[in-house]
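Collaborator request, handled under Task 6.
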Amino acid sequence: MKRVLVCGAGGFIGSHLAKRLASEGFWVRGVDLKHPEFSQTACHEFIQADLRDPQVAHRAVDSIEDVYQLAADMGGAGYIFTGDHDANVMHNSASINLNILEEGRKAGVKRFFYSSSACIYPAYNQEDPDNPVCSEASAYPAAPDSEYGWEKLFSERLYAAYSRNYGTEIHVARFHNIFGPQGTWQGGREKAPAAICRKVAETPDGGEIEIWGDGKQTRSFLYIDECVEGVRRFMDSGFAGPVNIGSEEMVSINQLAEMAMQIAGKKLRIRHIPGPLGVRGRNSDNRLISEKLGWAPSRPLKEGLRRTFEWINNQVKNRVASMAS
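Structure tokens returned to the collaborator:
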């Protein structure tokens, strides 16, 4: 069995990816600070430890052929855009990438997948919510809208440097707002689809939910299954990237909230309040992935949002029941 490592296997995308890899017949080692919160890990071996420690990275890559590096200090807008966590975000994530690349190189790892982010794209190209520019070639001159984006861009260059200097095979993807069941849905690190689904689930019909900003800021959101499919196809391609893995179905945050209300069968008012926003518009440009992989995500947003709402609605009901008991 081919031995692979998933860094960040306790997280949302990492746990789903580990399940997919195991189902394909790979022997999977996972490493993370925590086990998956909402499911049993599919990993054959799980190391609960801190990849900021070079010795942990050394142990993690032992006898491994492929590394999928998704471990990072991250969260939604409430975590990334306040500025309160910038030092930790940059230090923690950069340390992980420096360690896993160097220890992996010394251990003879054959291939690395690195999960970068659409947050690397210049803020000046994303001021128009109706016409954001997010083609892969638009990344420079660099001007990410957050320190999270700057760290991701630095790490992209780190992987490219290892490829040039050591012949390491790399595959770098820029994720665009991945969502789905078994993801963070409360506590401040959740992303927009989960936060909105939670608010709609918690609010009685006829009530009111809060949305940061005017709600006209636009994004695209990619369902987790299509993200994992894209990662697997990309890893087995001969293309190094960077490449976008995201949806081209762009919606405003107000439209996302209305979609969640329709799924829930509720009519709610929206109250707009000040809050961290990020760029005004962002959407995946899938021309390059279509050209290089002959594939691009195509699942409608509403289909994935329905599955996500149903899961979060159950979480909310379970929480209410446990508080009442």
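The cover message to the collaborator said: "The mean pLDDT is 94. The domain at 3-179+222-245 is CATH 3.40.50.720 (Rossmann fold). Please let us know whether this matches your experimental observations."
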